[in-house]
């Protein structure tokens, strides 16, 4: 079972990352899915998405949970029945979960050239310290996207915009951490963020 990485963020928070190498059948077979989850996975047109969905259930098992312990609210935010906070991500051949006593968010993204083309859609303040022709620009933009996606997952509030409401403080990829802010409806919220790279992917996560 390819648990790829486990990170103890602090005494209340853990990140686990799965490398999806198994077939659909070998991921599906050992799981006991509730009816809603079974319907959802069977309705997916892409086997890549199916395997991502199932690998997340294996990650739940690594934390001592089952599919029955997980539910989603009206905004699509995942929750655990025991009251702990959870955030979930999967991208191509990797999936990840963060579980904590506090609100958290996580995102995994594949590093791709096209992020430079869409940067104007999610970057504003950050352009002040980004050199877009820098060879590291794809890596740094992927970090920014991952942090903002993690913030969005944590807050799960319709109407929030990456470009207007989320701000990532200057960083270098080698830092592995920075600070991010949410500025929304006259209130400001500060978050600690961390990120890591592996096999052409970037994982970012945020905690208060």
TrEMBL record:
Name of the protein described by the UniProt record: 4'-phosphopantetheinyl transferase superfamily protein
Originating organism: Winogradskyella marina
Keywords tagged on the record: Transferase
Domain 4'-phosphopantetheinyl transferase: 104-180
A Pfam family the protein falls into: ACPS
Top-level division of the source organism's lineage: Bacteria
GO molecular function, one term: transferase activity
SUPFAM superfamilies (UniProt xref): 4'-phosphopantetheinyl transferase (SSF56214)
Coiled coil: none
Gene3D superfamilies tied to this protein: 4'-phosphopantetheinyl transferase domain
């Amino acid at each position: 079972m390819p648990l790829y990485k486990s990170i103890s963020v602090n005494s209340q928070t853990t990140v686990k990352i799965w490398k999806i190498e198994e077939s659909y059948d070998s991921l599906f077979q050992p799981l006991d899915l509730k009816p809603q989850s079974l319907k959802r996975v069977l309705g997916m047109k892409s086997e890549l998405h199916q395997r991502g969905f199932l690998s997340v259930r294996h990650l739940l098992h690594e934390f001592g949970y089952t599919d029955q312990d997980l539910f989603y609210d009206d905004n699509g935010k995942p929750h655990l029945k025991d009251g702990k906070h959870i955030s979930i991500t999967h991208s191509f051949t990797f999936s990840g979960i963060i579980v904590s006593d506090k609100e958290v968010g996580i995102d995994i993204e594949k590093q791709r050239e096209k992020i430079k083309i869409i940067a104007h859609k999610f970057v504003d303040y950050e352009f002040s310290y980004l050199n877009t022709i820098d060879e590291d620009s794809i890596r740094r933009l992927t970090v920014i996207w991952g942090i903002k996606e993690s913030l969005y997952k944590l807050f799960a509030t319709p109407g929030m915009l990456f470009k207007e409401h989320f701000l990532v403080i200057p960083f270098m990829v080698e830092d592995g951490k920075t600070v991010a802010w949410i500025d929304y409806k006259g209130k400001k919220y500060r978050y600690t963020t961390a990120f890591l790279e592996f096999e052409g992917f970037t994982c970012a996560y945020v905690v208060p």
